[in-house]
Structure formats: C-alpha cells, structure tokens
Amino acid sequence: GKDGYRHYMEKELHEHPVVIGQTLQRLIDPATRRVMMPDLPFDLASLPRAVVTACGSAFYAGLVGRYWLEAVAGLPVDIDVASELRYRDPPLTAGGLGLLISQSGETADTLAALRGMRARGQHILSVLNVEQSTMARESDVVLGTVAGPEISVASTKAFTAQLSVLACLTIAIGRARGTLSEAREQELVTELLDLPSRANEVFDQGQAIREMAAVVAQARDVLYLGRGSSFPVAMEGALKLKEVSYIHAEAYAAGEMKHGPISLIDNTVPIVATLPSGRLFEKTLSNLQEARARGGRLLVFTDTKGAPRLRDLAEIVVALPTVSEFTAPVLQTIPVQMLAYEVALLKGTDVDQPRNLAKSVTVE
Ligand code: M6R
Question: What are the counts of helices (DSSP H) followed by strands (DSSP E) for the chain?
C-alpha cells in the first residue's frame, strides 16, 4: 500500500535515502570501505570502451554515468537512447562493455539494443531493478538496484539507485584501470556513504519546493538548465514535469542557451536551474545572469555553499546540503522530482498513472 502517502510517487520519493543506502550496501564492504563487484566473466582492466544505453529516466542516469566513467575511470564512453542505438551501426571492438540500464528489465528497445551489442561481441552488464527479468537472463552480469518495487509510472527512486550502482561501477573500473588511487577511492566511497543522511535532509526543503511549484504550475513552458553532471539532472526534471503535470518542459545545457533558447525567455517561462557549487558553478551562474537580464524568473536548486551567490539573483533558492561534485547529481535529483510531484498535485492530474503512459514499454 501507500503507507499513508497520497500517491505511490510521493511514497517512492521518500524512499530515496533508504534505497541509496541499500544499494550501496550491496557494493561496498563496510570494513574496508572498498567497492566490491560480483565475479565478472571479463576483466574490467582491459575494457577498451563502454557503450551505454537505456530509455527515458534510465538514459539520464546513464548520462550521469558517462561523466563519471570518463572523468573518474578514464574510460571512453559512447551513449545513446536505445531506440536510436539499436538502429545505428556503431563500429564496436569485440570485448567492449555494453552497459544497459533499466528499472523493469523488459523495455523493448533496451532489450533489442542489448541483443545487438551481444551479437557484436560486447560484454553485457545490466543495471536492473527487477532482477528476474528478460534483460537479466540475457546479461553476462547484473548489478541490482535495490529499490524495491516501483509502482508509480514516473520513475523516482529507481533513478538514484541506478546512480548509486553506476558510481560504484565507476570506482571499480577506475581501480582496475589504475586511474584511481586507493586514497581517492576511499574518499569517493566516504562521499557515497554520506548520501543517505544528506538525502534525508532534502525533505526539509518541502516548503520552498512548494513555492516553486506554485510558480511552475502557472506556466505553459518551463526551461530546465544545468551543466556537466547537472545537465542530465535537468533533463530528468523536465521529463518528470512533462509526465506528471502535462506542462511542456525542455532541458538545455546552460552553455547552449545563447545558441537559441534564450530567445524564448521572458517572465512567462520559468527557468529551473540545478547549480551545485563546484567547478562549473561560476559558468552556470553567468548563464543565469544572462537569463535574468532578459526577464527570466529563476528558480534555483543549489547547495548551502552556492546559495549566498544566488539570493539576489533568483526568485526562489533551494539550498541543499553541500556535498562533493561527484555525488551532487544524486542529491540534486531528489528535489527536481519533488517539484514535478508538487506541480502535479496543484494541477490535479492522475499522478501515479499519467495519461498515455505505461510503466514498462514492452513494445517498440
Ligand atoms: O523500465 P525502464 O527503466 O527500462 O524504463 C525506461 C523508461 O520507460 C522510464 O524511465 C520512463 O521514462 C519513466 N516513465 C520516467 O519517469
């Protein structure tokens, strides 16, 4: 049941901290604070590259994974949505990694992409929530997201669980490839293990998120912005808003704004920005100043470190706990999903079962 929550989506949003913790627990040895992988039928050290594919939210998790795999593990990554990848003919070197991500393990396009990669000699590693699924049976290795059943059609907790697995996989590959020192691994693991408590603190921001929702609910179009690993978080926010509130939303890499979408900006198109402190903070901040100068209403998710710089610029600022750049996208996902939920409540839509959508898309 819904355990007293109004919708499964609300219940599942509140499960983020527990799900992140459970998922990490499977992959991190608490005594040594080191990532442990199951026995693999291939060697992580000798992978030439990875091809990552998935659909919808799972694809956005994969995009965050790409930033990690490239920057932390030094692994070349190609990524595409499964419906495109399955009909592309990318030249693949045998012995590469085919990395699939799916909550259900039954998504038709992702399954077809898996089969295509297997036929081209890729090692198949799937990040799955349903461990008894078609994709699980056809994979060389399954890494489980320990999210429990996800009932709401809009995916929430599965996403942070997927990120938790991808973060651990990145560490394991980085160690195998020698791009990650033991000391750095320990730092990253410590940052990951800190996430469940930090995720709990996100719920303290409910009031500010509801204020944002009141603005967004009035809009016809909403622009989501982010850079680096926050860009896929913006995409996830935009998708979730579309799914459950039926408001048009579009996510843009903040630096691309001036190459087109800036012409949309006026005071009727709210801008939801995800902007944690770190390397890309100043760059994104100047993009937001450009938007503000054109009358844009800024609704910003940042952290306690970034918040003081935004108070005069943004209409509403949500300051999350400050965490590392590595783990920030995991934490920042929670409030963008919460925002979509709050807007859906204001709109009175069928939150758990939005029109035209199915939980698992088993046809092409
Ligand atoms: O079961 P899967 O993870 O393979 O599903 C992929 C997408 O269909 C799914 O993430 C969809 O985009 C959700 N409705 C997003 O909230």
Answer: 14, 12
